[in-house]
Amino acid sequence: MSGANGLNLTLKVWRQKNDKDKGQMETYQVADISPDSSFLEMMDILNEQLIEEGKEPVAFDHDCREGICGMCSMYINGEAHGPGRGITTCQLHMREFNNGDTIYIEPWRAKAFPVIKDLVVDRSGFDRIMAAGGFVSVNTSGNTQDANAIPIPKADADKAFDAATCIGCGACVASCKNASAMLFVSAKVSQFALLPQGRPEAAERVQNMVKQMDEEGFGNCSNTGACEVECPKGISLENIARMNREYLSSSFKKEEV
Amino acid sequence: MSWFKRTFSSSIGRKFAMALSALFLLIFLLQHLAINFTSVISEKTFNSLSHFMGTNPVVQFALQPVLIFGVVFHFMMGFILEIKNKSARAVRYAKNDGSANSSWMSRNMLWSGLFILFFLAFHFADFWIPEMVYKYVEVNPSDPNRYYEEVVHMFENPIRVAVYCLSFVFLALHLLHGFQSAFQSIGARHSKYTPAIVKLGKLYSVAVPALYIFIAVFHYLAH
Amino acid sequence: MSVLDSKIPEGPIKDKWTNHKNNIKLVNPANKRLIDVIVVGTGLAGGSAAATLAELGYNVKAFCYQDSPRRAHSIAAQGGINAAKNYQGDGDSTYRLFYDTVKGGDYRSREANVYRLAEVSTNIIDQCVAQGVPFARDYGGLLDNRSFGGVQVSRTFYAKGQTGQQLLLGCYSAMSRQIGKGKIKMYNRHEMMDIVKVDGKARGIIARNLITGEIERHSAHAVVIASGGYGNVFFLSTNAMGSNVSAGWKIHKKGAFFANPCYTQIHPTCIPQHGDQQSKLTLMSESLRNDGRIWVPKKKEDAEAVRAGKLRGVDIPEEDRDYYLERRYPSFGNLVPRDVASRAAKERCDAGYGVGTNESGEAVYLDFSAAIMRYGQEQANIHGEHDASEARVRELGEDVVEKKYGNLFQMYEKITADNPYKVPMKIYPAVHYTMGGVWVDYNLMTTIKGCYCIGEANFSDHGANRLGASALMQGLADGYFVLPYTIGDYLANDIRTGSISTDSPEFEEAEKSVKDQINFFINNAGTKSVDHFHKRLGKVMWNKVGMARNEQGLKEAIEEIKQIREEFWKEVKVPGVADGMNLELEKAGRVADFLELGELFARDALLRNESCGGHFREEYSTEEGEAMRDDENFTHVSAWEFKGEPSDAVLHVESLVYDNIELKTRSYK
């Protein structure tokens, strides 16, 4: 029996034992889901149900459940983080769905994000891109110059902040028809390119990060804009244009050393 | 690896090259349209311009190869990028809703591009190859007044006119995404100018193919 | 004489840290290359420590259970970070920050540690700006500040509502740089399962690779625990789902004392629980209390009607609303400190005036309509619209409120589907931060030699209550500016030790016990899921060891937790395999530790016969329900030594001496 507002749903979920398994979609039913529940709470209920039935629960990444850690990563009904804009999977609520709906739940799909298990993918490519240049080379000393020594125009500081809000969830890669990581990489390149502290090594940075991005096997940018639409933090395509500019100008202008 | 090779084998460098060839082709399309359009206005002007283009050594032996290179490069690079992009996602989604976040045009540049490629083959067979044979194989005498007649003759066939019209619809779709995309790829984006570029892009993408279609239909109906 | 030696340096408080740094041993750069340090946890404390240690030249091995260091829960901190920069020229100073922090902590923190924290706070801001952290700036291009609860100066640096994220990404960048250089070896998706002691010194850890399930031995000359707080012992909290006490608890079981476990911060402005299916609570920044007024209905029947869904808060007339904070605390009103605001909300809900839609009716209103109209009128005056209609004033006011709190309002609407511009928000307190943690000395070393504990995981700087925007400050101070120096004093003796072998019997034994526990979980023929037990534990903790505690409840809680724990070891069911990714298995290990900590937590609360900061005992309160501290008997740190069962733990006491600050009663009347 179902509650007054409870949702009964059919779930088609990708199940894959490990990185070597081929994997397949499985169908499950869940009943009486509160519309106030979050999507991941619905997944919790499914898992409780599976454990009760003696089956293995669905593995999925999640942590903060408030849309900031970037861990959760589900492709729901054909969209990264499901329907709704400016949200991560954990911020998606069941009131977005109707009783009787069938929901497709898949992992991020990209050659550079191999599936580890079920809905869990390996995004360490992002970490390697960061290690290639996503930093300002300054040691901790306590003796760097005073924080107010270099004024930064508010507009630049705000733009840098907007770029820096990227949570590295990978929705851009998942949404892009080419599985391109340009939005992620450009957000970090832009943040530092816009700040005086990041300028001294801006050319090196963009070269190294793009090189690593290409080596990871991400696709090219076709400017479809899907990434920007699906990005939970609304990172702008402007950043990609800026990275293109930074990359090209550093390619043609920077002296070979 | 030399810096040049490194740059143009990177993802951004390839897109840059793609965009440069696209911008070049955008200019070519305008020039081609301008000459074609004279056929609607004045037979004489059209013939004299066509004759100039067809016989001027700079056009024939310098600009024409560059154009052919540009076209071939744009297609080849398009295919290379497409192969790379396809391989970046080995396993497809069981359910994917592309229309939720992007335009049909942006997702189907390959198909609109391929259609244009078939059109080009058709167009070459129609005009360019006979022209080359006429001039350089058979080495016929120069006739400055033959061009208009040839065009009119071509557009007597309704099937050909239909194929032309359809092709230009695909060109419009290709341009609707391609125009602004080219600017994005070379990093030309600015809060002040980009809105104008986007508007210009839409205007260009609709007006230029529409005028090509107009010319074909005009000749079909007028004769 | 206590067995606890806090190692606080001699001398006047303002010179202690400088003198200490001048006198501790250093390790020369060539020797640093021969020394390995393990850092567990990559939040603000662990991340900054790992990066700095690697910059100094040590070989660092860093571990996190998430898929990347960037995901540690420091990322969720919203409000800001305090620093005594005095950029606003409003009279701030190191001493004032020190004073506010000690007072805010209800005089239960160590003076010397807090002073050092205030002292290095300014370096943090310099360091972060140099790293490219995009703090908010004013139109002149200089850094902006805002003020935060309980203080009289503007010393909080911020990056919109995402300060924690920006600071953590700064740390992560610094780490990435060292990972790229090979100075940090990063172990993502690895969980520390136990610490390994050789000859009484911390010499490594046993870790589980969460992808392959492999049990790995890692050795080092020192181990740094930076694994965060244990708020998830309540099941529902604002912590991340994976946040756990296990690293801290494992070292506790191997000899590290656990201090003040009962000090828990309950944050007053969280989104209320919607029902039983809830997995986690979401915090709304404290800054909302600057403009929101908190109330419940004056009449019980109105509250009942709201709970039954028959009446909307917005329809209750002004005269039937009880603005209880303004009523009880006229001078601070809605801006009383977190612990006071939280308890007042609980008091009203317990009395039957709550407006929540869940079973217990736990929610109060946070209403912006007055602020909207006030701002709207102001704007109307500015624009010269002197006869603006009410609707127009409201519209103008909503614009102002949107500029100030837009992202928070949006977040609220996403979760609740209510529009907070039109109807009052519903809020309720939730577990947010734990001031208690592993006991450490001035050098941040635990009672295990060579084992350090930093950030929220230790107990040191916040006393019984933490001030807003101080958690980020402490995490980064420990990681960037304190530990990297103090650890050298210990490691200087290890320059000839050479690399530590993992083939010793100690590693063997530790690995075996880890494997035994895993095998037990996998093979146990239980019938109930891990969450089943975690939820039960959480309910006991919340109801009896939560915002308000009493002797009877705590005694019951101790018994109930014991029972749940016994049942857990009999009845827990963990599906899946040991040699592969198994999220249930991970949870089982963590909940097993929570079940032990919970009991110690309740014992600690039971023994502390006073009310201070986040610890409120109903017996020790005034008639008006205000907290009563007992400075005579409880001006000390309670540090627990593990002896087998939580009930056997032995209490050690570190007396707190206040030479620079006079102890006063906090009053917000």
Descriptive notes:
The complex is a heterotrimer of chains A (257), B (223) and C (669). With 257 residues, chain A is of the alpha+beta class. Chain A has 2 domains: 7-106, Ubiquitin-like (UB roll); 123-253, Alpha-helical ferredoxin (Fumarate Reductase Iron-sulfur Protein, Chain B, domain 2). Chain A is built from 8 helices and 7 strands; from the N terminus they run E-E-H-E-E-E-E-E-H-H-H-H-H-H-H. Chain A has a 5-stranded mixed sheet. In chain A, strands 6-7 form a two-stranded antiparallel sheet. The longest helix of chain A has 16 residues, at 238-253. The model of chain A has no long low-confidence stretch (mean pLDDT 95). Chain B has 223 residues and is an all-alpha fold. Chain B has one domain: 3 helical TM bundles of succinate and fumarate reductases, CATH 1.20.1300. Helix content of chain B is 80%, strand content 0%. Chain B is built from 9 helices and no strands. Chain B has helices at residues 3-8, 11-41, 43-55, 57-87, 104-107, 109-137, 147-154, 158-185, 194-222. In chain B, helix 2 (11-41) crosses helix 4, helix 2 runs parallel beside helix 9 and helix 6 (109-137) packs across helix 8. Chain B is globular, with a radius of gyration of 20 Å. The termini of chain B are far apart. With 669 residues, chain C is α+β, with helices and mostly antiparallel strands. Among the domains of chain C are: 270-430, Alpha-Beta Complex (Flavocytochrome C3, Chain A, domain 1); 505-635, Methane Monooxygenase Hydroxylase, Chain G, domain 1. The chains are: A alpha+beta (257), B mainly alpha (223), C alpha+beta (669). Chains in contact: A-B, A-C. Chains A and C meet through helix 1, helix 2 and helix 3 of A and helix 3, helix 5, helix 6, helix 12 and helix 13 of C.
